[in-house]
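So, who can interpret the following?
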Amino acid sequence: MSDDPNARNPVGDEARMAALDERIKAAREREEQRGKPTAGVEADANYRMGSRVLAELIGGIGGGAFIGWVIDQFAGTSPWGLLVVMALGVVAAFRNIIRISGSTKG
């Protein structure tokens, strides 16, 4: 062998290159996994579902209360129109929520 400190060792270079290739391959796999939007898509879908359920509840209760109040104002049946139509709004809201939850299953 040569006593030159700058001389290259072909066996050592091959081992370093193989190790470098493995590290590059592992880094690419990590980047591919990081780039996949799996958790974000699921969380976004759950957020939309929650917003839809909340809108159904608010719409059913609020809409029923408003329509019942209007009926009470014209018919003079206060508070029965409000209570009856608001109860119907709650029933309609829960029916829609059950229908929404049934449509998301498999």
